Amino acid sequence: MGNIFEDFEGKKSIFKDKQPLDHRFLPEKLPHRDEQIQLIAKYWSEVLNNNTTPSDITIYGKTGTGKTAAAKFTRGQLLEATDSKNVFVKVEYIRCTDYTTEYQVIAQLCQKLGRNVPHRGWTRGEIINAFRDIFRSKNAYGHNLILIVILDEIDVLLEKDGDGILYTLTRTDNVSILSISNNIDFKKFIKPRVMSSLRDKEIVFPPYGADQLADILHERAEMSFEENSLDDDVIPLCSAMAAKEEGDARYALDLLRTAGEIADDKGVDTVKEEYVRMAKDKIEHNKVTDIIHTLPTQQQRVLEAILKLTQDGEEITSGRLYETYKEVSKGDSVTYRRIFDFVNELELLGIISTNTISRGRAKGRTNIITLQCDTDLLETSLYSV
Ligand code: ADP
Ligand code: MG
């Protein structure tokens, strides 16, 4: 028998380079984000022109509206511009899903700025002192360091660990914060005493329309696909579908890449419109299965109960759900209260939605649960665990 990799060697592909279709790829141009990038640059230019710490900035926008890309792009531009100037500025990027507590963020910043600190074990005071110490030394031109911290997905950190990180950073001289949030009302996690020192400029990233998504996809497709390998309708369809999904560029790129992979699997040399529709099902399928497979057992049972009630065409009230859940879990069940934590989590994951309705004065308010994904898909995913 030959080597199993021989079959794959030199296999024909319609991709010349898949990298530009990856989420992490940072393109050289960001069409339709000039206005937002110009604003960030305007605020940050304080550091170039006056050697002063720029205002704090907050960027809002739904997933896939180019927030991370725009922040990283502007960082690159600023660092390039400082090269030839006599300023001492650093821009550090922190993704708050990787560093989820104030301690972790500050420790990571210290590391990046060349101060060796332990990742745990010090008191909060010790780590903050070490961090603030960095700004006391001057460079060869007599300048103190100015630091711009990009806190991406900050809503995750604030919800988990409170607003201590903002308290500390806003009260450290020479630090400017660029916060990025998917959640418009993330400021509800910030207490007034911190709000008052965060005098931030807000920049909104609106969802992309279908035409804008098409422009973005055209640029990326040119880098990724062999010439003439996309049927004319492919990009417009990916764009229209993603425009419906809240103008999400990430989703548009996923559709295009997955459609290309389907064409490769079939061994054909053009991507057809129907592959985009197949890609949509495939992406949805993977998303739902991934989520379901990582749920704890009790939560899967809650979902099983919701599925059963949905298939029976019943209205799902809290009480009805708990009864059915108990049947499904056959004695090994958790309390009524615990179920509602699960319901909240499932709602956050987008698998279900809840709706409070009022049934007249006597009966009060009732929560109705509705499944938000395909029942067949859920059934296959649940029972293939
Ligand atoms: P967000 O941070 O708002 O969720 P991202 O910045 O991660 O969104 O963008 C998602 C994907 O779409 C990335 O691959 C990014 O490169 C791409 N993208 C978003 N906006 C643009 C744009 N204006 N031009 C080119 N690519 C873009
Ligand atoms: Mg992002």
What is this structure's SSE topology?
Blueprint: H1 34-50, E1 56-61, H2 67-83, E2 89-95, H3 102-112, H4 124-133, E3 146-152, H5 154-161, H6 164-170, E4 175-181, H7 192-195, E5 200-205, H8 210-224, H9 234-244, H10 249-266, H11 273-294, H12 297-311, E6 316-317, H13 318-329, H14 336-348, E7 352-358, H15 360-363, E8 365-371, H16 375-383
Parallel strand pairs: 1-4, 1-5, 2-3, 3-4
Antiparallel strand pairs: 6-8, 7-8
The chain binds adenosine-5'-diphosphate and magnesium ion.
Strand order of the largest sheet: 2-3-4-1-5
Number of helices: 16
What is the H-and-E element order? HEHEHHEHHEHEHHHHHEHHEHEH
Give the structural class: alpha/beta
The whole-angstrom Rg is: 25 Å
Query: Beta-sheet strand percentage?
Result: 5-15%
Biggest beta-sheet profile: 5 strands, parallel
- Distance separating the two termini: 35 Å
- Summed over residues and divided by their number, the pLDDT gives a mean of 91
Q: Helical percent range? A: 40-55%
Beta-strand segment tally? 8
Bound molecules: adenosine-5'-diphosphate, magnesium ion
Low-confidence sequence ranges: none
Q: Tell the overall outline.
A: globular
Summarize the structure.
The chain has 385 residues and is an alpha/beta fold. The protein is built from 16 helices and 8 strands. It is 50% helix and 13% strand.
